[in-house]
Model the fold of this input.
Amino acid sequence: MPGFEDPLSSSRMLSSSVSSVSSSRQASNIAKSYRQAAQLFLTRRLPEALSTIEPIIAPQSPAESPNGVQNGTHVEPAPIASASRGTRIKVWSFYLTFLNAVVELGPEEGKHAFGSTKWKALVNKTRDGSIWEEVVRDGYHNSEGDVDADVVIGLATLLLTHSPNQKLNQSRLETYLSATANPSFDIASHMEASLTRRHSNNNGTSTPRDLQTRLKLLELYTLHVLPRNEEWEYSREFIMMSEILDDERKEAFLQALYGLKEEKLNAAVREAELQKQQQEQLEQRQKEDEARRREAIRAEDERRKKEEDVRRQPRPTSSSNTNPSDPLNKRLASPPNRHTGSGPTTSSRPSRTPAKRPQEPPPNLYRRFTHLFAFFQLTIANMGQSVSSNPMAALRMMLFLLAFILAFARRDLRERVQRILRQAWEKVRRTAGMGVKVSYI
Done:
């Protein structure tokens, strides 16, 4: 009837209005949380930034029905799943940047800021690639093909930087590229997607920005991920078969791929040469050390040999220490002459050779007197032997000495001899003086 409104229509309008207000309020809360988390991140208050951003990217607790009854084990999706495309990209890009900063803190600073358990959990999800599964599950209703391309680029870059194995990164990118290879522009499919996610999601190349994003994904996949997995030939084939790349871009991608491969080969060659040089230097140092060690051993052997030669040399006897120029030593070394009536004659009996004495130091005044006394003693002994062996020669010697003493006992004879000696000395002195004057002239 006219004037009455349909109750069902009014209910739908009211529900739509409430839903619109709720969505608007939720979007406002997400934007506010994002701004606060970004501000905390810029001031390096990372734990506070994490606690601010987590409520909008984590699933909610089990929801209650309008009559207050729990809906079993059903878990509401994260608030970010129902946000607009721009908001989703901002929030997830911020979260990926935040995880990169957490990993770069290092173990000591990271554990101090978040605690050991929390920091290890954040680092592990970055290195093992589980962050990709978390983003797909909580932010895109577990539909990997619906993930925004900018978020995929962030995920691939994060894994490329911190993951030791790029197999998972390659698998995820291949799944995403396969799901978005033939984008659909059917309005019905977009309306159907809007019933589940309340937003339209276009990952194709319908706009220049979408094309640039798609090219960035291809660059990451073909020029970074596949080369890390040594998939050089597959990367080349993928570039050649790509429908997005034109001939000019294909040539540019192939040149970049060849450049990367050549650079890697050159790096491997340089590394091998560096290792070879290090090995040669190590061997050279070892040879030098060995040569120095042998030289030290040889020098030590020579020193010991010289010491042994010095110890083995015979010690010099007393005769070698005796000065041969000493008249006393000459007299001791030569046998005494025997005199006959007509003159000195050689004794028929050989003189005794003195026994060897131990090595003695060079003679001093005391030793000289000792040698003189021994000489007199030896002379007296020889005279005794001469008297016993040749009495006539001894008698003639005694008579000669007696005549010499009697002659010098006369005073006039002594004075005459002294005068003759003085005259001779005076002549010698004058002759020497004339020689000195002539040398001066």
